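Quick note —
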Amino acid sequence: MTIKLVAFDLDGTLTVDSLDVWKKLTAKYGLTQEVNEIAKKFFNNECDYETWANEEMDLFIKNGITKEKIEQEIKLSKITPGAIETLEELRKNGMKIALLSGGIDLAFRKIFPSHELFHDLLINKIADGTWIATKYGHGKYKAEGLCYLAKKYGLTLKECAFVGNDINDIETAKVAGLSIAFNPVCDELKCVSHRTITGDMTQILPYILKP
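Predicted structure written out below.
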């Protein structure tokens, strides 16, 4: 079946390495114990991703971590070689393009200032001092994000592709019509994906655009 929508992970997929904004903030402000307690609830299935992200950001706010301080901690990563060319070629061929990430939009916008290549940005956002958590930032919730995108555009999951690199992309790879483990750092992701590709991102194009 023809692919009509492609969703991308951010850290380590569209960027060369992980931006690690969450980890940097946690370490710098001495919040490791509190953050681990919040994360523990999520991994014990006691809350969903949106609740986890909101509780963590509330903790940051209570400790004086403002939008400006977050921006100061953003480590600028390099865009993956071939990423822009890949996004442009997909758009040229009529594809819907989405970002599906548990990262922070401040980091994404610094690296991709021209983000009009994307039709949808499913990522945690900070706007006018207000924190807006995505529902679709990790594991099975990322998979739900792909389902949401398919429904939004009247597509089946077989018409949707997903490109990711790490353990929290596994569930999304399982449901996508075409899943690509790109420069993967997780063997299990390679096992559940249809293709494993390393190097320049333009190498994914033949698999997505094939007749």
